[in-house]
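> forwarded from #structure-qc
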């Protein structure tokens, strides 16, 4: 019973992680695309370079906010400018997003937590299995008692008198 409830809990945790990761990636992509108008990421058409200091400062603020709000995602780099202030060992999965507008392409690399980091033992599953198990034990005991009662009692002969056909027989 515990294994069944634990499997259900792990499946729910997997889908919850997948959904929260997808939402977090969407929100971070939207935030970076909105901030890109005010961020000096360079322009190939105008032949302007990327302002590395501005990118580093932006990545520091963005990753700080993402950590404070417990997002499962951090931004590793923008336009191949990679932050060195963050430790990405807890974020092994890599995602890349490209934002294209009329004049430039903005490349954003994001890192996310692994699925296994969200799996945990479910105390709710343990408590539910402890509460439900006695009901199954009681029902299985009553089934065993019924089976033994049915086996022990031999069939008793009955005397059947048929007045229509004027016959007498035992009912076995």
């Amino acid at each position: 019973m515990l294994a069944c409830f634990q499997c259900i809990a792990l499946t729910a945790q997997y889908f919850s992680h997948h959904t929260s990761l997808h939402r977090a990636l969407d929100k971070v992509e939207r935030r970076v695309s909105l901030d890109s108008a005010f961020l000096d990421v360079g322009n190939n058409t105008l032949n302007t370079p990327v302002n590395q200091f501005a990118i580093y400062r932006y990545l520091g603020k963005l990753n700080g906010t993402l950590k404070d709000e417990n997002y499962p995602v951090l931004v590793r780099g923008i336009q191949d400018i990679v932050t060195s202030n963050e430790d990405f060992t807890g974020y092994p999965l890599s995602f890349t997003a490209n934002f294209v507008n009329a004049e430039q392409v903005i490349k954003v690399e994001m890192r996310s937590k692994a699925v296994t980091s969200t799996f945990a033992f479910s105390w709710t599953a343990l408590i539910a299995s402890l509460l439900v198990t006695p009901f199954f034990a009681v029902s299985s005991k009553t089934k065993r008692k019924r089976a033994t009662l049915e086996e022990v009692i031999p069939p008793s002969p009955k005397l059947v008198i048929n007045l229509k056909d004027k016959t007498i027989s035992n009912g076995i």
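QC bot note: The CA atoms of residues 11 and 153 lie 49 Å apart. The chain is about 45% helix and 20% strand.
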